[in-house]
Hints:
Elements: H1 21-34, H2 38-46, H3 51-75, H4 79-103, H5 109-116, H6 120-126, H7 129-148, H8 156-180, H9 182-191, H10 202-220, E1 231-232, E2 243-250, H11 269-277, E3 280-282, E4 286-287, H12 293-301, H13 319-326, E5 329-334, E6 347-350, E7 360-361, E8 364-365, H14 374-379, H15 383-388, E9 390-395, H16 429-460, E10 464-471, E11 476-477, E12 483-484, H17 494-497, E13 498-499, E14 501-505, H18 507-513, H19 517-523, E15 528-529, H20 531-540, E16 543-544, H21 560-566
Parallel strand pairs: 2-9, 2-10, 4-15, 5-6, 5-9
Antiparallel strand pairs: 1-16, 3-14, 4-13, 7-8, 10-14, 11-12
Helix pairs in contact: 1-3, 3-8, 4-7, 5-10, 11-16
Amino acid sequence: MTPIQGVPPGASHAVVRRRRPVVAVWWLAFWLAVVGNLPLWQRVDALGGALVQRLALLGGLGLLVAGATAALLSLLAWPRVFRPVVTLLVLVTAFNTHFMWQYGAVIDPGMLANVLHTDAREVRDLLSLPLLGTLLLVAGPPLWWLWRRPLSVRHWLPQTGRNGLGVVGGLLLAVLVTLLTYQDIASLMRNHKALRYMINPLNSVYAASSLAAEQLPQQVRTLQPVGGDAHLGGSYATQARPPLLVLVIGETARAQNWGLDGYARATTPALARWQAEGNLVNFPHVQSCGTNTQVSVPCIFSPLTRDQGGDKAAEHENLLDVLQRAGLAVLWLDNQSGCKGVCDRVTHVSTTDLALPGSCADGACFDDAMLKGLDERIAALDPQRRAQGVVVVLHQMGSHGPAYFKRTPDSHKPFLPECSSNTLSDCPPDQLVNAYDNTVAYTDRFLDQTLDWLKTRAARGSDDTGLIYVSDHGESLGENGLYLHGVPYAFAPQQQTHVPMVTWLSPGLQQRTGLGMDCLRARSGAALSHDNIFHSVLGLMDVSTQAYQLPLDALAPCAAAHARAAGIRPSPAG
Ligand SMILES: [Zn+2]
Protein backbone atom coordinates (compact mmCIF):
# COMPACT_ATOMS: atom_id res chain seq x y z
CA MET A 1 0.00 0.00 0.00
CA THR A 2 1.37 3.44 -0.84
CA PRO A 3 1.25 5.98 1.96
CA ILE A 4 -1.43 8.60 1.50
CA GLN A 5 -0.15 12.14 1.11
CA GLY A 6 0.13 13.94 4.47
CA VAL A 7 -0.44 10.85 6.58
CA PRO A 8 2.66 9.24 8.11
CA PRO A 9 3.30 5.66 6.93
CA GLY A 10 1.63 3.10 9.18
CA ALA A 11 -0.99 5.50 10.52
CA SER A 12 -4.59 4.90 9.64
CA HIS A 13 -6.41 7.86 8.15
CA ALA A 14 -9.42 7.07 10.26
CA VAL A 15 -9.43 9.04 13.51
CA VAL A 16 -7.62 7.07 16.21
CA ARG A 17 -10.10 6.32 18.96
CA ARG A 18 -8.46 6.91 22.27
CA ARG A 19 -9.27 5.40 25.63
CA ARG A 20 -10.04 7.46 28.71
CA PRO A 21 -7.38 6.83 31.36
CA VAL A 22 -9.95 6.25 34.09
CA VAL A 23 -11.49 3.38 32.08
CA ALA A 24 -8.09 1.78 31.47
CA VAL A 25 -7.12 2.13 35.14
CA TRP A 26 -10.21 0.43 36.57
CA TRP A 27 -10.52 -2.26 33.92
CA LEU A 28 -6.91 -3.29 34.43
CA ALA A 29 -7.10 -2.96 38.23
CA PHE A 30 -9.98 -5.43 38.33
CA TRP A 31 -8.30 -7.81 35.89
CA LEU A 32 -5.08 -7.82 37.89
CA ALA A 33 -6.93 -8.19 41.19
CA VAL A 34 -9.09 -11.10 40.02
CA VAL A 35 -7.12 -13.05 37.38
CA GLY A 36 -3.66 -11.94 38.52
CA ASN A 37 -4.28 -13.38 41.99
CA LEU A 38 -5.75 -16.79 41.27
CA PRO A 39 -3.18 -18.58 43.49
CA LEU A 40 -4.08 -16.23 46.38
CA TRP A 41 -7.81 -16.89 45.95
CA GLN A 42 -7.15 -20.62 45.85
CA ARG A 43 -5.09 -20.42 49.03
CA VAL A 44 -7.70 -18.31 50.86
CA ASP A 45 -10.49 -20.60 49.68
CA ALA A 46 -8.56 -23.65 50.89
CA LEU A 47 -8.44 -22.23 54.43
CA GLY A 48 -12.06 -23.36 54.76
CA GLY A 49 -14.94 -21.95 56.78
CA ALA A 50 -18.61 -21.45 55.94
CA LEU A 51 -19.37 -20.69 52.28
CA VAL A 52 -20.94 -17.28 52.99
CA GLN A 53 -17.98 -16.28 55.15
CA ARG A 54 -15.49 -17.44 52.52
CA LEU A 55 -17.30 -15.54 49.74
CA ALA A 56 -17.40 -12.38 51.87
CA LEU A 57 -13.68 -12.71 52.58
CA LEU A 58 -12.79 -13.34 48.92
CA GLY A 59 -15.01 -10.46 47.76
CA GLY A 60 -13.63 -8.10 50.38
CA LEU A 61 -10.02 -8.98 49.65
CA GLY A 62 -10.67 -8.72 45.90
CA LEU A 63 -12.10 -5.20 46.22
CA LEU A 64 -9.29 -4.21 48.57
CA VAL A 65 -6.64 -5.37 46.07
CA ALA A 66 -8.52 -3.77 43.14
CA GLY A 67 -8.77 -0.43 45.00
CA ALA A 68 -5.09 -0.39 45.94
CA THR A 69 -4.07 -1.42 42.41
CA ALA A 70 -6.29 1.31 40.89
CA ALA A 71 -4.59 3.87 43.14
CA LEU A 72 -1.20 2.65 41.91
CA LEU A 73 -2.25 2.66 38.24
CA SER A 74 -3.74 6.16 38.59
CA LEU A 75 -0.29 7.41 39.57
CA LEU A 76 0.95 6.05 36.25
CA ALA A 77 -1.91 7.25 34.02
CA TRP A 78 0.16 9.46 31.71
CA PRO A 79 -0.09 8.99 27.92
CA ARG A 80 3.51 7.91 27.25
CA VAL A 81 4.14 6.19 30.57
CA PHE A 82 1.01 4.14 31.13
CA ARG A 83 1.19 1.39 28.53
CA PRO A 84 4.88 0.42 28.89
CA VAL A 85 4.83 0.43 32.70
CA VAL A 86 1.52 -1.40 32.95
CA THR A 87 2.79 -3.98 30.45
CA LEU A 88 5.70 -4.65 32.79
CA LEU A 89 3.35 -4.93 35.79
CA VAL A 90 1.05 -7.33 33.92
CA LEU A 91 3.97 -9.53 32.83
CA VAL A 92 5.44 -9.56 36.35
CA THR A 93 2.01 -10.56 37.69
CA ALA A 94 1.79 -13.40 35.16
CA PHE A 95 5.29 -14.70 36.04
CA ASN A 96 4.49 -14.48 39.76
CA THR A 97 1.25 -16.39 39.22
CA HIS A 98 3.17 -19.17 37.48
CA PHE A 99 5.80 -19.50 40.22
CA MET A 100 3.16 -19.39 42.95
CA TRP A 101 1.22 -22.14 41.24
CA GLN A 102 4.17 -24.31 40.39
CA TYR A 103 6.36 -23.90 43.45
CA GLY A 104 4.23 -22.27 46.15
CA ALA A 105 6.62 -19.31 45.91
CA VAL A 106 5.84 -15.91 47.45
CA ILE A 107 7.41 -12.59 46.45
CA ASP A 108 9.30 -10.60 49.09
CA PRO A 109 12.41 -8.38 48.78
CA GLY A 110 14.72 -11.37 49.38
CA MET A 111 13.06 -13.42 46.64
CA LEU A 112 13.23 -10.49 44.21
CA ALA A 113 16.94 -9.94 44.96
CA ASN A 114 17.51 -13.61 44.26
CA VAL A 115 15.54 -13.39 40.99
CA LEU A 116 17.54 -10.35 39.86
CA HIS A 117 20.77 -12.34 40.34
CA THR A 118 19.53 -15.30 38.32
CA ASP A 119 21.69 -16.15 35.33
CA ALA A 120 20.67 -17.30 31.86
CA ARG A 121 21.22 -20.99 32.64
CA GLU A 122 18.95 -20.81 35.68
CA VAL A 123 16.29 -19.10 33.58
CA ARG A 124 16.52 -21.85 30.98
CA ASP A 125 15.91 -24.43 33.71
CA LEU A 126 12.65 -22.66 34.59
CA LEU A 127 11.16 -22.28 31.10
CA SER A 128 8.27 -24.64 30.44
CA LEU A 129 4.95 -25.03 28.62
CA PRO A 130 2.90 -24.31 31.77
CA LEU A 131 4.80 -21.02 32.08
CA LEU A 132 3.79 -20.07 28.54
CA GLY A 133 0.19 -21.09 29.29
CA THR A 134 0.02 -18.94 32.43
CA LEU A 135 1.53 -15.98 30.57
CA LEU A 136 -1.10 -16.27 27.83
CA LEU A 137 -3.95 -16.63 30.32
CA VAL A 138 -2.98 -13.85 32.74
CA ALA A 139 -1.16 -11.35 30.51
CA GLY A 140 -2.60 -12.05 27.04
CA PRO A 141 -6.11 -10.49 27.25
CA PRO A 142 -5.21 -7.28 29.14
CA LEU A 143 -2.15 -6.60 26.95
CA TRP A 144 -4.18 -7.12 23.77
CA TRP A 145 -6.84 -4.77 25.12
CA LEU A 146 -4.31 -2.21 26.38
CA TRP A 147 -2.34 -1.91 23.13
CA ARG A 148 -5.36 -1.68 20.80
CA ARG A 149 -5.85 2.00 21.60
CA PRO A 150 -3.71 4.75 23.10
CA LEU A 151 -4.83 6.83 26.08
CA SER A 152 -6.51 10.14 25.41
CA VAL A 153 -4.25 13.16 25.83
CA ARG A 154 -5.10 16.10 28.08
CA HIS A 155 -3.24 19.15 29.21
CA TRP A 156 -0.98 18.13 32.10
CA LEU A 157 -2.82 20.19 34.71
CA PRO A 158 -6.29 18.63 34.38
CA GLN A 159 -4.61 15.23 33.93
CA THR A 160 -2.77 15.66 37.25
CA GLY A 161 -6.09 16.48 38.88
CA ARG A 162 -7.78 13.41 37.41
CA ASN A 163 -4.91 11.12 38.35
CA GLY A 164 -5.00 12.52 41.88
CA LEU A 165 -8.75 11.83 42.04
CA GLY A 166 -8.04 8.28 40.81
CA VAL A 167 -5.52 7.69 43.60
CA VAL A 168 -7.96 9.01 46.21
CA GLY A 169 -10.82 6.95 44.74
CA GLY A 170 -8.78 3.74 44.76
CA LEU A 171 -7.57 4.28 48.32
CA LEU A 172 -11.09 5.17 49.49
CA LEU A 173 -12.41 1.89 48.11
CA ALA A 174 -9.59 -0.03 49.83
CA VAL A 175 -10.17 1.72 53.17
CA LEU A 176 -13.93 1.30 52.98
CA VAL A 177 -13.67 -2.42 52.30
CA THR A 178 -11.10 -2.83 55.06
CA LEU A 179 -13.41 -1.11 57.56
CA LEU A 180 -16.39 -3.24 56.52
CA THR A 181 -14.54 -6.56 56.71
CA TYR A 182 -11.87 -5.57 59.23
CA GLN A 183 -12.40 -8.50 61.60
CA ASP A 184 -12.02 -11.16 58.90
CA ILE A 185 -9.20 -9.60 56.88
CA ALA A 186 -7.16 -8.62 59.95
CA SER A 187 -7.33 -12.08 61.46
CA LEU A 188 -6.54 -13.69 58.09
CA MET A 189 -3.42 -11.55 57.67
CA ARG A 190 -2.37 -12.11 61.28
CA ASN A 191 -2.68 -15.87 61.10
CA HIS A 192 -1.30 -16.30 57.57
CA LYS A 193 1.41 -13.68 57.28
CA ALA A 194 2.87 -15.15 54.10
CA LEU A 195 -0.39 -14.32 52.22
CA ARG A 196 0.55 -10.64 52.02
CA TYR A 197 3.51 -11.63 49.80
CA MET A 198 1.06 -13.33 47.42
CA ILE A 199 -0.85 -10.15 46.48
CA ASN A 200 0.01 -9.37 42.84
CA PRO A 201 1.31 -7.01 41.59
CA LEU A 202 1.61 -5.02 44.87
CA ASN A 203 4.08 -7.58 46.32
CA SER A 204 6.54 -6.94 43.48
CA VAL A 205 6.15 -3.15 43.69
CA TYR A 206 6.77 -3.35 47.44
CA ALA A 207 9.76 -5.68 47.01
CA ALA A 208 11.31 -3.50 44.29
CA SER A 209 10.86 -0.30 46.32
CA SER A 210 12.33 -1.75 49.49
CA LEU A 211 15.28 -3.24 47.54
CA ALA A 212 15.90 0.13 45.91
CA ALA A 213 15.68 1.88 49.27
CA GLU A 214 18.25 -0.60 50.65
CA GLN A 215 20.57 -0.24 47.66
CA LEU A 216 20.60 3.55 47.35
CA PRO A 217 22.36 4.38 50.62
CA GLN A 218 24.75 1.44 50.04
CA GLN A 219 26.15 2.97 46.89
CA VAL A 220 27.27 6.03 48.78
CA ARG A 221 28.44 4.09 51.82
CA THR A 222 31.95 2.74 51.60
CA LEU A 223 32.87 -0.83 52.34
CA GLN A 224 33.21 -1.25 56.11
CA PRO A 225 36.63 -2.71 56.95
CA VAL A 226 36.67 -5.82 59.14
CA GLY A 227 39.64 -7.21 61.06
CA GLY A 228 42.10 -4.46 60.15
CA ASP A 229 44.40 -5.90 62.82
CA ALA A 230 44.31 -9.47 61.42
CA HIS A 231 47.60 -11.37 61.68
CA LEU A 232 48.80 -14.96 61.71
CA GLY A 233 48.93 -16.63 65.12
CA GLY A 234 51.86 -18.30 66.85
CA SER A 235 51.48 -21.65 65.07
CA TYR A 236 52.86 -20.17 61.82
CA ALA A 237 56.25 -19.25 63.31
CA THR A 238 57.21 -22.89 63.79
CA GLN A 239 55.18 -24.60 61.07
CA ALA A 240 56.70 -27.52 59.17
CA ARG A 241 53.98 -27.34 56.51
CA PRO A 242 51.39 -24.66 55.65
CA PRO A 243 47.72 -25.38 56.44
CA LEU A 244 45.32 -25.90 53.50
CA LEU A 245 41.64 -25.55 54.28
CA VAL A 246 38.89 -26.27 51.74
CA LEU A 247 35.57 -24.65 52.52
CA VAL A 248 32.79 -26.21 50.45
CA ILE A 249 29.66 -24.06 50.20
CA GLY A 250 26.88 -26.47 49.33
CA GLU A 251 23.78 -25.53 47.32
CA THR A 252 20.20 -26.36 48.34
CA ALA A 253 21.16 -29.47 50.37
CA ARG A 254 18.74 -30.03 53.23
CA ALA A 255 19.45 -31.92 56.45
CA GLN A 256 16.30 -34.04 56.12
CA ASN A 257 17.74 -35.94 53.11
CA TRP A 258 21.31 -36.13 54.44
CA GLY A 259 22.30 -39.75 55.16
CA LEU A 260 24.59 -38.82 58.09
CA ASP A 261 21.70 -36.93 59.72
CA GLY A 262 19.64 -40.12 59.93
CA TYR A 263 17.81 -40.10 56.59
CA ALA A 264 16.46 -43.57 55.84
CA ARG A 265 18.24 -43.68 52.46
CA ALA A 266 22.00 -44.00 52.07
CA THR A 267 22.52 -40.64 50.34
CA THR A 268 25.99 -40.16 51.92
CA PRO A 269 27.69 -43.60 51.81
CA ALA A 270 31.17 -42.21 51.11
CA LEU A 271 31.04 -39.68 53.94
CA ALA A 272 29.85 -42.48 56.23
CA ARG A 273 33.13 -44.32 55.43
CA TRP A 274 35.18 -41.19 56.19
CA GLN A 275 33.23 -40.81 59.42
CA ALA A 276 34.00 -44.42 60.37
CA GLU A 277 37.68 -43.73 59.76
CA GLY A 278 37.48 -41.21 62.58
CA ASN A 279 38.63 -37.90 61.08
CA LEU A 280 35.26 -36.65 59.87
CA VAL A 281 32.60 -35.23 62.17
CA ASN A 282 28.99 -34.58 61.15
CA PHE A 283 27.02 -31.71 62.72
CA PRO A 284 23.31 -32.57 62.66
CA HIS A 285 21.82 -29.34 64.06
CA VAL A 286 22.85 -26.45 61.81
CA GLN A 287 20.51 -23.58 60.81
CA SER A 288 21.03 -21.52 57.67
CA CYS A 289 21.10 -17.72 57.74
CA GLY A 290 18.67 -17.28 54.84
CA THR A 291 16.43 -19.31 52.57
CA ASN A 292 18.16 -18.29 49.35
CA THR A 293 21.70 -18.04 47.98
CA GLN A 294 21.64 -14.26 47.76
CA VAL A 295 21.19 -13.92 51.53
CA SER A 296 22.96 -17.02 52.82
CA VAL A 297 26.28 -16.91 50.95
CA PRO A 298 27.27 -13.39 52.09
CA CYS A 299 25.95 -14.17 55.58
CA ILE A 300 28.14 -17.30 55.93
CA PHE A 301 31.23 -15.12 55.38
CA SER A 302 29.96 -12.13 57.37
CA PRO A 303 31.48 -11.16 60.74
CA LEU A 304 27.92 -10.36 61.85
CA THR A 305 25.48 -12.91 63.18
CA ARG A 306 22.03 -13.12 61.61
CA ASP A 307 20.59 -11.15 64.56
CA GLN A 308 23.20 -8.44 64.08
CA GLY A 309 22.22 -8.06 60.41
CA GLY A 310 24.49 -10.68 58.84
CA ASP A 311 21.65 -11.41 56.43
CA LYS A 312 22.06 -7.86 55.06
CA ALA A 313 25.87 -7.67 55.24
CA ALA A 314 26.77 -6.59 51.73
CA GLU A 315 28.57 -3.42 52.82
CA HIS A 316 31.04 -5.22 55.10
CA GLU A 317 34.33 -6.88 54.35
CA ASN A 318 34.13 -10.58 55.05
CA LEU A 319 36.01 -13.66 56.20
CA LEU A 320 38.01 -13.90 52.95
CA ASP A 321 39.24 -10.30 53.28
CA VAL A 322 40.37 -11.02 56.84
CA LEU A 323 42.19 -14.24 55.87
CA GLN A 324 43.91 -12.45 53.01
CA ARG A 325 44.86 -9.48 55.17
CA ALA A 326 46.46 -11.85 57.69
CA GLY A 327 48.74 -13.06 54.89
CA LEU A 328 47.07 -16.24 53.63
CA ALA A 329 46.42 -17.14 49.99
CA VAL A 330 42.69 -17.29 49.19
CA LEU A 331 41.07 -18.85 46.11
CA TRP A 332 37.35 -19.01 45.24
CA LEU A 333 36.14 -21.47 42.62
CA ASP A 334 32.56 -21.00 41.49
CA ASN A 335 30.50 -23.63 39.76
CA GLN A 336 27.29 -21.64 40.18
CA SER A 337 25.90 -18.16 39.57
CA GLY A 338 28.73 -16.27 41.28
CA CYS A 339 29.85 -15.43 44.81
CA LYS A 340 27.38 -12.57 45.50
CA GLY A 341 30.22 -10.11 46.07
CA VAL A 342 32.00 -12.23 48.67
CA CYS A 343 35.03 -13.09 46.49
CA ASP A 344 35.42 -9.67 44.80
CA ARG A 345 38.78 -8.92 46.43
CA VAL A 346 40.38 -12.39 46.30
CA THR A 347 41.46 -14.61 43.39
CA HIS A 348 38.33 -16.14 41.89
CA VAL A 349 37.58 -18.39 38.95
CA SER A 350 34.29 -19.52 37.45
CA THR A 351 34.25 -23.16 36.38
CA THR A 352 30.83 -23.07 34.71
CA ASP A 353 32.21 -22.21 31.27
CA LEU A 354 35.00 -24.80 31.15
CA ALA A 355 34.78 -27.39 28.42
CA LEU A 356 36.10 -30.34 30.39
CA PRO A 357 35.19 -33.64 28.72
CA GLY A 358 33.10 -35.80 31.05
CA SER A 359 32.34 -32.91 33.44
CA CYS A 360 30.81 -30.22 31.26
CA ALA A 361 28.00 -30.14 28.69
CA ASP A 362 25.38 -27.62 27.49
CA GLY A 363 27.04 -24.65 29.17
CA ALA A 364 27.16 -26.19 32.65
CA CYS A 365 29.60 -28.38 34.56
CA PHE A 366 29.19 -30.99 37.27
CA ASP A 367 30.84 -30.00 40.54
CA ASP A 368 33.85 -32.26 40.00
CA ALA A 369 35.03 -29.72 37.38
CA MET A 370 36.26 -27.61 40.31
CA LEU A 371 38.74 -30.36 41.30
CA LYS A 372 40.33 -30.68 37.88
CA GLY A 373 43.64 -28.82 37.78
CA LEU A 374 43.19 -27.62 41.36
CA ASP A 375 46.83 -28.39 42.28
CA GLU A 376 47.95 -26.15 39.41
CA ARG A 377 45.54 -23.37 40.42
CA ILE A 378 46.93 -23.43 43.96
CA ALA A 379 50.52 -23.50 42.66
CA ALA A 380 49.76 -20.33 40.68
CA LEU A 381 48.77 -18.34 43.81
CA ASP A 382 51.17 -15.81 45.36
CA PRO A 383 54.14 -17.93 46.55
CA GLN A 384 54.76 -15.89 49.70
CA ARG A 385 51.16 -16.23 50.85
CA ARG A 386 51.01 -19.85 49.76
CA ALA A 387 54.02 -20.62 51.97
CA GLN A 388 51.99 -19.38 54.97
CA GLY A 389 48.74 -21.16 54.21
CA VAL A 390 45.86 -21.53 51.75
CA VAL A 391 42.07 -21.32 51.99
CA VAL A 392 40.11 -22.59 48.96
CA VAL A 393 36.34 -22.07 48.67
CA LEU A 394 34.43 -24.43 46.37
CA HIS A 395 30.96 -23.03 45.60
CA GLN A 396 28.87 -25.94 44.42
CA MET A 397 26.00 -26.26 41.95
CA GLY A 398 24.92 -29.02 44.36
CA SER A 399 21.17 -29.66 44.40
CA HIS A 400 20.11 -26.50 42.53
CA GLY A 401 16.53 -26.93 41.27
CA PRO A 402 14.11 -27.24 39.72
CA ALA A 403 16.03 -29.32 37.15
CA TYR A 404 17.58 -31.67 39.75
CA PHE A 405 18.10 -34.35 37.10
CA LYS A 406 20.60 -32.07 35.33
CA ARG A 407 22.87 -31.98 38.40
CA THR A 408 23.96 -35.60 38.19
CA PRO A 409 25.71 -37.56 35.43
CA ASP A 410 23.84 -40.62 34.11
CA SER A 411 26.47 -42.88 35.67
CA HIS A 412 25.63 -41.59 39.18
CA LYS A 413 21.91 -41.87 39.66
CA PRO A 414 21.43 -44.44 42.44
CA PHE A 415 17.73 -43.60 42.91
CA LEU A 416 15.53 -44.35 39.88
CA PRO A 417 13.17 -43.58 38.24
CA GLU A 418 13.75 -39.87 38.69
CA CYS A 419 11.70 -36.83 37.76
CA SER A 420 13.17 -35.41 34.56
CA SER A 421 10.89 -32.37 34.21
CA ASN A 422 11.27 -28.88 35.62
CA THR A 423 7.50 -28.79 36.19
CA LEU A 424 7.89 -30.36 39.61
CA SER A 425 4.21 -30.76 40.43
CA ASP A 426 3.83 -32.93 37.29
CA CYS A 427 6.15 -35.60 38.70
CA PRO A 428 5.04 -38.30 41.13
CA PRO A 429 6.40 -37.24 44.55
CA ASP A 430 8.69 -40.28 44.87
CA GLN A 431 10.35 -39.54 41.50
CA LEU A 432 10.92 -35.95 42.57
CA VAL A 433 12.56 -37.16 45.78
CA ASN A 434 14.65 -39.63 43.73
CA ALA A 435 15.97 -36.83 41.53
CA TYR A 436 16.76 -34.71 44.59
CA ASP A 437 18.39 -37.59 46.48
CA ASN A 438 20.58 -38.24 43.45
CA THR A 439 21.93 -34.70 43.78
CA VAL A 440 22.70 -35.29 47.47
CA ALA A 441 24.43 -38.57 46.58
CA TYR A 442 26.41 -36.68 43.94
CA THR A 443 27.52 -34.13 46.56
CA ASP A 444 28.60 -37.09 48.70
CA ARG A 445 30.72 -38.32 45.81
CA PHE A 446 32.10 -34.82 45.17
CA LEU A 447 33.11 -34.45 48.83
CA ASP A 448 34.62 -37.96 48.70
CA GLN A 449 36.80 -36.92 45.74
CA THR A 450 37.76 -33.67 47.51
CA LEU A 451 38.72 -35.57 50.65
CA ASP A 452 40.76 -38.08 48.62
CA TRP A 453 42.64 -35.17 47.09
CA LEU A 454 43.22 -33.53 50.50
CA LYS A 455 44.36 -36.83 52.01
CA THR A 456 46.83 -37.35 49.17
CA ARG A 457 48.28 -33.86 49.64
CA ALA A 458 48.60 -34.46 53.38
CA ALA A 459 50.24 -37.85 52.80
CA ARG A 460 52.67 -36.24 50.38
CA GLY A 461 53.67 -33.92 53.20
CA SER A 462 52.95 -30.75 51.23
CA ASP A 463 50.33 -29.35 53.64
CA ASP A 464 48.20 -29.96 56.71
CA THR A 465 44.77 -30.26 55.14
CA GLY A 466 41.19 -29.88 56.34
CA LEU A 467 37.67 -29.41 55.01
CA ILE A 468 34.46 -27.78 56.18
CA TYR A 469 31.28 -28.40 54.21
CA VAL A 470 28.05 -26.50 54.87
CA SER A 471 24.98 -25.99 52.68
CA ASP A 472 23.64 -22.48 52.01
CA HIS A 473 19.96 -23.31 52.63
CA GLY A 474 17.56 -26.20 52.26
CA GLU A 475 14.70 -27.00 49.88
CA SER A 476 11.00 -27.84 49.88
CA LEU A 477 10.01 -30.89 47.85
CA GLY A 478 6.24 -30.47 47.88
CA GLU A 479 5.67 -30.46 51.66
CA ASN A 480 2.61 -28.21 52.31
CA GLY A 481 2.43 -27.52 48.57
CA LEU A 482 5.82 -25.75 48.64
CA TYR A 483 8.65 -26.35 46.18
CA LEU A 484 12.16 -24.92 45.85
CA HIS A 485 13.14 -22.34 48.52
CA GLY A 486 13.08 -18.61 49.29
CA VAL A 487 10.10 -18.48 51.65
CA PRO A 488 10.53 -15.39 53.91
CA TYR A 489 12.72 -16.53 56.82
CA ALA A 490 10.11 -15.84 59.50
CA PHE A 491 7.68 -18.36 57.95
CA ALA A 492 10.14 -20.73 56.32
CA PRO A 493 9.61 -24.45 56.95
CA GLN A 494 12.57 -26.25 58.56
CA GLN A 495 13.22 -28.08 55.26
CA GLN A 496 14.49 -24.75 53.92
CA THR A 497 16.62 -23.73 56.94
CA HIS A 498 18.00 -26.96 58.49
CA VAL A 499 21.20 -27.76 56.58
CA PRO A 500 23.95 -30.39 56.65
CA MET A 501 27.51 -29.65 57.78
CA VAL A 502 30.66 -31.79 58.19
CA THR A 503 34.29 -31.19 59.12
CA TRP A 504 37.28 -33.36 58.23
CA LEU A 505 40.77 -32.75 59.62
CA SER A 506 43.94 -34.55 58.58
CA PRO A 507 46.05 -35.85 61.50
CA GLY A 508 48.57 -33.10 60.73
CA LEU A 509 45.93 -30.36 61.08
CA GLN A 510 44.56 -31.97 64.24
CA GLN A 511 48.03 -31.86 65.76
CA ARG A 512 48.69 -28.33 64.63
CA THR A 513 45.41 -26.95 66.00
CA GLY A 514 45.21 -29.22 69.02
CA LEU A 515 41.66 -30.15 67.97
CA GLY A 516 40.61 -33.49 69.41
CA MET A 517 38.27 -35.52 67.21
CA ASP A 518 36.70 -37.32 70.19
CA CYS A 519 35.86 -33.95 71.70
CA LEU A 520 34.42 -32.67 68.40
CA ARG A 521 32.31 -35.80 68.02
CA ALA A 522 31.04 -35.47 71.58
CA ARG A 523 30.06 -31.85 71.01
CA SER A 524 28.75 -32.24 67.46
CA GLY A 525 25.11 -32.34 68.60
CA ALA A 526 25.20 -28.69 69.71
CA ALA A 527 22.88 -26.21 68.00
CA LEU A 528 24.95 -24.34 65.40
CA SER A 529 24.25 -21.96 62.52
CA HIS A 530 25.93 -20.02 59.73
CA ASP A 531 26.80 -17.49 62.48
CA ASN A 532 29.56 -19.89 63.60
CA ILE A 533 31.43 -20.24 60.29
CA PHE A 534 33.32 -16.88 60.30
CA HIS A 535 34.74 -17.46 63.78
CA SER A 536 35.35 -21.20 63.43
CA VAL A 537 37.45 -20.71 60.29
CA LEU A 538 39.49 -17.92 61.90
CA GLY A 539 40.09 -20.17 64.92
CA LEU A 540 40.96 -23.20 62.79
CA MET A 541 43.38 -21.14 60.65
CA ASP A 542 44.89 -19.48 63.77
CA VAL A 543 44.23 -15.93 62.54
CA SER A 544 44.18 -13.38 65.37
CA THR A 545 41.94 -10.31 65.16
CA GLN A 546 39.55 -8.26 67.27
CA ALA A 547 36.81 -9.41 64.89
CA TYR A 548 37.13 -12.97 66.22
CA GLN A 549 34.64 -14.00 68.90
CA LEU A 550 35.60 -17.09 70.84
CA PRO A 551 32.04 -17.96 71.96
CA LEU A 552 30.98 -18.28 68.29
CA ASP A 553 33.91 -20.56 67.34
CA ALA A 554 32.22 -23.98 67.23
CA LEU A 555 35.56 -25.83 67.25
CA ALA A 556 37.42 -23.82 69.93
CA PRO A 557 36.12 -25.74 72.95
CA CYS A 558 37.97 -28.78 71.53
CA ALA A 559 41.19 -26.91 70.76
CA ALA A 560 43.12 -27.51 73.96
CA ALA A 561 46.33 -25.96 72.67
CA HIS A 562 44.53 -22.91 71.33
CA ALA A 563 42.73 -22.34 74.60
CA ARG A 564 45.95 -22.77 76.59
CA ALA A 565 47.78 -20.29 74.39
CA ALA A 566 44.98 -17.77 74.80
CA GLY A 567 45.03 -18.33 78.56
CA ILE A 568 41.45 -19.59 78.65
CA ARG A 569 40.07 -22.92 79.78
CA PRO A 570 37.93 -24.80 77.25
CA SER A 571 34.49 -23.36 77.82
CA PRO A 572 31.40 -25.55 77.83
CA ALA A 573 29.40 -22.52 76.71
CA GLY A 574 31.15 -22.33 73.34
ZN1 LIG B 1 21.45 -21.42 47.21
